[in-house]
Structures are given as structure tokens and as C-alpha cells.
Write a structure and sequence with these properties.
- It is a single chain.
- A hairpin with a 4-residue loop joins strand 2 and strand 3.
- The two termini are 21 Å apart.
- Strands 4-10-9-8-7-5-6 form a seven-stranded mixed sheet, sandwiched between helices. Strands 1-2-3-13 form a four-stranded mixed sheet.
- With 435 residues, the chain is α/β, with parallel strands linked by helices.
- It folds into two domains: 174 residues, Aspartate Aminotransferase, domain 1; 204 residues, Aspartate Aminotransferase, domain 2 (3-Layer(aba) Sandwich).
- The chain binds pyridoxal-5'-phosphate.
- The site of pyridoxal-5'-phosphate has 13 residues, from helix 5.
Length: 435
């Protein structure tokens, strides 16, 4: 018997190709036949599904957006005030200027900001600005940067190179063939691979601030050196990493000198806002290209971001995210040793992630983890986007649930009962067409 959420998902699949607008919220990413899929309410780290079951979110937290927890009272109260005074108008909202000034203070290398709403859109804008400025089409990049043509063009050659950059299975269908060769991927932290893709045609290098690992000093030095020698622009995509290590992007900690930095996700604590910051010369190039959209100037995003920045700074949120992430990573390791699971954890603590090493059983084991944690009223996956509401006092109960479920997982491997224990089809890791 399907839960209410999955019944709605069936209707969604009839009305919305692919079911929704974001891969990471599809039930097949978790436990396809049992995942609650839709929420009726969310507050702090609590989530209620359509049947009013209450869960603790030890998983995606709005896919990294709600860094202060769901429905932060201060941010929401500022947004509600803005809603009451009007969000879209013939005139501009003053908060656009206030937010620009705040972000420039936090990023002294920069002297210009443009705003967008989503991460992929902000990265498309950043690439447009960089191409306008460098007058070169070719972009070398590492990591995931959204759904735009510039990025998916990587796969036009048919060798599925993006599979090494977070999401396997991304098809370049619909991307003009003329873009072939304009985006060259290189592996994160791999200096040799970086050198392999650099030529005089490259005008821009893009990396993520951090994902599962931090960039190594030799990798950053190589990027900086190549950029200087060849006059290449550096873009750091801090859409997922922003405010998780410091007050802004990870680049502020490692000495990299970018020309453009992009923020999104956590910046509005769930309200849509993204920002592209850069040096004066580079950002001025945005005026030589047409970059303009009605909702780039809508008020809620700016108000939410100003309020979120204030809360993140007052609480120094990144300190807590790191200390809780370290505790969780250490405990996962301890419990996996206790039960005999082959598990490692990532260095990057605020998006703490475990990786299993059980060959072709990995996806099924993670699905079993999600399935058994659901029974204990957790939304749980192998990654946790930590938030201000993930405090130490929620950990004991979570660890005791992990203890039992890791034991079940280890037993399933030893006794070869994984398939019979699964009450759902296994999760899917990458993108695929849903019928
Ligand atoms: C590093 C990075 N860049 C870009 C994006 C795309 O952002 P959005 O999903 O808001 O379009 C993401 C989303 O996960 C991301 O993690």
C-alpha cells in the first residue's frame, strides 16, 4: 500500500514530466517505494509528511538551503514584514543595495555584485560575464554547476565526462551542437588533469569552494599560476559551500584569489536568492552583455538574505556546523568498526558524508539505511547538510538509531539477506529519465 506522498507522486508524474523540478527531491534518490516524498510542514529540523508523521531531518535540509533550520523565526518575520509592504513594484526595493553592500564588505576582493535567484542561473550569469570579459568561449571546470547549456555542453562529445562531477547520467540533449568543446572538465585536486585541459583558448577556470574534500594547496597554486600566466579568470562556485566554513566562501580560508565568486542556497535560508560578486573590471563587463530579468529584483530574496546573514554572523554558524559534523563523522566511524561495515567519512564536515566500500551492494545498503531510519522517524541518507538546529542534544538518539541500523546492514552483508530485507527498490544515484 503506497503512502499518501507516493500517491501524489504518481499524480505528479502524470502532470509534470520527471515529477518535479529538482532531481534531489525525487523519491528514487532515497527509497523509491516508501519515501514520504512530500511535506506538509517543516520547522527547525522537524518535518511532517502528508500523513502527519513527524520526522527528524538528518539528510538534505532543503538540499542545503535551510542552514539556520526550517522556518527560522527571525528570517521569516523579516520576510513577512516585507510581504506586507509589497514585494514587487514599479520602483526598486532598497534591500538590493543593502545586500550588495553587505556582501561586498564580506568579500573585499570584489567591488561589484549582481543578483539572481537560483544557483544554476547565477553560474550561467557568471560564465556569461567571464566570457564577455575574457572574450574567450572555452571554460575549464571541475564540479557540479547546474543545468545550463554551458555546463551540459561538456557531454556533447558523447563520452559522459560529467559523470565524474557529482551527477552521472546528465544528457546534453537540447544543447546546441555548436557548443561542443566549449566546456572542458578536469578532476578536482588533480593538477595533471588541470594542465591537460588548459590551452590558449581557455578564458575561465571554475572550481567549487569545497564538496566532499577541500582543495589541496598544490591544486590551488596550480590554478593561480596558470591563471596569472595565461590571463585566465577564476570563478569559485560557493553555492553549496558558502557559510559552511567561514563567513562567506571557503576561498577566504585558502588564499585563492578569484575574479568571481558565486553564492546561493544557504544565503536566503530557503528563500530564493543567489549572488555573483567580482572585481570591478570583470563585473563591469556585465554591462556589455544583456543580463536582466523581472524576478531578479523581487524583494523577498534580498530581505531574507539580509536577515540570514545577520543570524549566521551572530551565531558564527560555521563553527557549530564543523564541530557537530566532526562528532557525527567520528561516531559513524566508531559504529561502522563496531559492526564490521567498510565505511569512510569525508574531510568536509559541514556536509558530512559517509561512503561505503561494499562494491555493488553500496546503493542497496544506503537504501536499507534510509528504510530502517524511516521506521525510527528519521529522514536519513549518507550525507547530512548540517544546520544551526542540529545541536548536540539531538545526537544521542540519532546515534542510537544508527547503531541498530548499522548492525542490521552489517548482518545483511554477512548473511547475504540484503535483497530480502529491502522493502523498496534500491535508490538511484544519478539522473535518469523517469517514465
Ligand atoms: C556547487 C553548486 N553549483 C551550482 C548548483 C546549482 O544550483 P541550483 O540547484 O540552485 O540551480 C548547485 C546545486 O546543488 C551546486 O551544489
Amino acid at each position: 500500500m503506497k503512502n499518501k506522498g507516493l500517491k501524489l507522486w504518481d499524480r505528479a508524474m502524470k502532470a509534470i514530466p520527471g515529477g518535479n523540478g529538482l532531481l534531489s527531491k525525487r523519491p528514487d534518490r532515497y527509497a523509491p517505494d516508501i519515501w514520504p516524498t512530500y511535506f506538509s510542514k517543516a520547522k527547525g529540523i522537524k518535518v511532517w509528511d502528508l500523513e502527519d508523521n513527524e520526522y527528524t531531518d538528518m539528510a538534505q535540509m532543503g538540499i542545503g538551503t535551510c542552514i539556520l533550520g526550517y522556518g527560522d523565526d527571525y528570517v521569516d518575520s523579516q520576510v513577512i514584514d516585507a510581504v506586507k509592504t509589497g514585494v514587487s513594484c514599479t520602483l526598486n526595493p532598497p534591500e538590493e543595495v543593502l545586500l550588495a553592500e553587505e556582501l561586498l564588505k564580506l568579500n573585499p576582493f570584489a567591488s561589484g555584485v549582481r543578483f539572481a535567484r537560483t544557483g544554476g542561473e547565477a553560474m550561467a550569469m557568471a560564465v556569461r560575464i567571464a566570457r564577455t570579459h575574457s572574450k574567450k568561449d572555452v571554460v575549464a571546470f571541475s564540479g557540479y554547476h547546474g543545468w545550463s547549456d554551458w555546463y551540459l555542453a561538456t557531454n556533447l562529445k558523447g563520452d559522459n565526462k560529467l559523470s565524474q562531477h557529482l551527477l552521472p547520467g546528465l544528457s546534453p540533449n537540447g544543447v546546441p551542437k555548436g557548443l561542443e568543446g566549449t566546456a572542458r572538465p578536469f578532476l578536482y585536486n588533480n593538477v595533471e588533469d588541470l594542465h591537460n585541459v588548459i590551452s590558449d583558448e581557455v578564458g575561465t577556470i571554475i572550481i567549487e569552494g569545497a564538496r566532499y574534500d577541500f582543495p589541496k594547496p598544490e591544486f590551488l597554486e596550480a590554478i593561480q599560476k596558470i591563471a596569472k600566466e595565461k590571463g585566465i579568470l577564476i570563478i569559485v562556485d560557493e553555492i553549496t559551500s558558502g557559510w559552511r566554513m567561514t563567513d562567506g566562501g571557503v576561498f577566504k580560508l585558502n588564499g585563492l584569489k578569484p575574479d568571481i565568486v558565486v553564492y546561493g542556497k544557504a544565503l536566503g535560508n530557503g528563500y530564493a536568492i543567489s549572488a555573483i560578486l567580482g572585481t570591478k573590471e570583470v563585473m563591469d563587463s556585465s554591462q556589455d552583455s544583456f543580463i536582466s530579468s523581472t524576478f531578479f529584483t523581487e524583494r523577498v530574496g534580498f530581505v531574507a538574505a539580509l536577515a540570514t546573514l545577520k543570524r549566521m554572523q551572530e551565531t558564527k554558524i560555521w563553527v557549530q556546523l564543523n564541530s557537530i559534523g566532526t562528532i557525527i563523522g567520528d561516531k559513524w566511524l566508531e559504529l561502522s568498526k563496531k559492526h564490521g561495515l567498510n565505511l569512510s567519512v569525508t574531510d568536509y564536515k559541514p556536509l558530512i558524508t559517509f561512503k561505503l566500500d561494499h562494491g555493488d551492494q553500496n546503493q542497496k545498503l544506503i537504501t536499507l539505511f534510509t528504510q530502517e531510519m524511516l521506521k525510527k522517524k528519521y529522514l536519513a541518507a549518507s550525507s547530512i547538510y548540517l544546520t544551526l538546529c542540529h545541536t548536540e542534544d539531538v545526537l544521542d538518539e540519532y546515534f542510537s538509531a544508527c547503531d541498530t541500523v548499522f548492525e542490521t546492514m552489517a548482518k545483511a552483508i554477512k548473511e547475504d539477506t540484503l535483497d530480502s530485507l529491502l522493502e523498496t527498490a534500491p535508490r538511484e544515484d544519478g539522473f535518469k529519465r523517469l517514465n
